[in-house]
Structure formats: C-alpha cells, structure tokens
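Backbones bend. Our protein:
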Amino acid sequence: MRESLEKELKKLNSNMIRMAHMAEDAIRSAIKALEDKDANLARSVILEDEEINAFEKKIEAKTVKLIYREQPVAADLRTIFTALKMVTDIERIGDHAADISQVALKTMGEETYDGIKDVHDMAYAAIKMVEKAVKSFANHDLELAKRVAVMDDEVDKYFDNIKSNLIEKIKNPKIASKYAEQLANYLLIIKYIERIADHATNIAEWVIFNITGNH
C-alpha cells in the first residue's frame, strides 16, 4: 500500500506542477496581449482558462480518491490537504489572467497608457513570485517558500505607486476627459496583478505548512 501511495503522490505533484505552469503561461500571455494589443492572444488566454479549471477538478477528484482508497496519515495526509488548498489558488491565478485579458480586449482601440512599463514590471514581479512558489513546492524548498512572502512587498509597492499615479491622472479634467475609461481599466489590471501575487503568497504558505506542519 505504501508503494502505491508514493506512486500516486508523485502523479499528484506532477499534475500540480503542470497546472501551475499553465497558470504562469496564462499570466505572461495576458500581459503580452495587453502590451502588444493582441486580441487573438487575449482571447486564447480566456479560452485556456477552461483547461486550468478542468485541471483543478481533476486534481480535486484525485485527492478525494487518494484519501478514500489509501487512507493516508501524518505527512502524506498533509501533502494531499496542501494540494487541495493550492489548486484553488492556482485556479484563481488563471482566472485573473483571463480577467486581465478581458480588460485588455477593451483597451485594443485606445492609445497605450504611458505607465505601461510600470504595469509590465509589476506583472513580472508577480510572475516571479508564482514561479518561485511553484519551484518551492516542486523542490520541497522551505527557504524559497519563505522568500516568496517577502517578494509580495515589492508587488504591493508597485500597486500603491501605480494606483496613485492613475488616480492623479483621473483627477486631472483634461486627461480624464480623454482617458478616463482607459485609466479605470488599468486600475482593474493592477488589482488583478496584486491578487495574483497574493495567491502566490498563499501557495508559498501552503508549502511551508506541508514541510513544517505549521501555517
């Protein structure tokens, strides 16, 4: 039974990592679609979100079967519980990538916001968090998981600075009369990016729980 459980846990980990990489790719594509005004790429991210959702259901079903059939205890049960929690955060990351793509489609006919580089930098700081959170899970790396939470501060600073800049522009009647909708769209986008970073932090915290038993 032990050998069978170890085999199934390896499959579970493999599926978790695959799903997480799908979510990472979705974020990158969403930001690229925004920057390049690529409507087809934005639509593909929205469509591919269904695949991530399907993966979540597949992993959830797998974990329930494992608990029922193998009756794991101690560290093994903690690993399965961690997987159940993590897939929810990964799925939400995919959702936010799709959300960004939906907003990107609305900006296709507009001039590019002059703070796009800051949005780009914020997005890639969040993507790095997701990458490292997934790597910490794959490698059972406690120290890397701890560093992810620290990285969230950087994304929060980006969010505060960009939001302040956008609000100042909205307050300016000359700018707002022409760009109000675009600026509002970018407020939505940076909020989605900030939430992606939060979910990466959650994943890292679940990795810490899986390794130490403490949350």
In short: The longest helix spans residues 173-212. The radius of gyration is 19 Å.
